[in-house]
Design goal:
Blueprint: H1 24-29, E1 34-39, H2 43-57, H3 62-81, E2 85-93, E3 96-103, H4 128-135, E4 138-144, E5 147-155
Antiparallel strand pairs: 1-2, 2-3, 3-5, 4-5
Helix pairs in contact: 2-3, 3-4
Bound molecules: adenosine-5'-diphosphate and magnesium ion (MG).
Residues 73, 76-77, 128 line the site of magnesium ion.
Length: 164
């Protein structure tokens, strides 16, 4: 049976033979952050977790909507092009909220150029990464034949919440 994605509680260490390692140190430094595995059919749960943690990390209103668009496009790409399953992390980095999406798929052929050209309005697909770039002041794409990690930096519009 396939393992269901489970949000990783702040500060906890997920030990699983299949799970990609989320560096514990980073979670401890970002106690409101999120580390979650996802797969096809579970995007609703992923989006709910991203919305909740995005708010705690300092996004509200339209910027929170932007985070949901970015996370959805990157996660959809993992499902369609990146091997079907992956992991998503959210964490605060200074004045930014970072959304990192990782897979172990075949990689992107030309990562530096991916999403840099606007796609014709009549095209049915191929604009996801372009949209992500429009919303992101800093987009890091690290891709090789053994996988892709994309990190989108989104400016926070309020301080991160304090832990209860
Ligand atoms: N995680 C990924 N792994 C492998 N290839 C990817 C990944 N994300 C994007 N790509 C490649 O980049 C292309 C552009 O992605 P995108 O702009 O989201 O358009 P679309 O998903 O509609 O094709 C994809 O068609 C695919 O070839
Ligand atoms: Mg796409």
């Amino acid at each position: 049976m396939k393992e269901m994605p489970v949000p990783v509680a702040a500060g906890s260490r997920q030990q699983s033979a299949q799970a990609p390692a989320f560096p514990a140190q980073r979670e401890e430094q970002n106690p409101r952050g999120l580390g979650v595995r996802f797969q096809a059919g579970r995007l609703y749960a992923l989006r709910a977790a991203v919305a909740a943690h995005g708010m705690r990390l300092g996004l509200t209103g339209a910027p929170l909507g932007t985070l949901l668009v970015v996370a959805t496009e990157l996660a959809t790409n993992v499902i369609r092009h990146g091997g079907g399953e992956g992991s998503l992390r959210l964490y605060r980095e200074g004045e930014f909220v970072a959304c990192e999406v990782k897979d172990r798929g075949p990689g992107i052929a030309n990562p530096d150029m991916a999403g840099s050209a606007q796609v014709a309005p009549t095209a049915g697909e191929g604009r996801g990464l372009w949209i992500v770039r429009q919303f992101t002041s800093d987009l890091r794409i690290d891709s090789s034949p053994s996988g892709t990690t994309i990190t989108a930096m989104l400016p926070a519009n309020r301080p991160a919440e304090q832990d209860a």
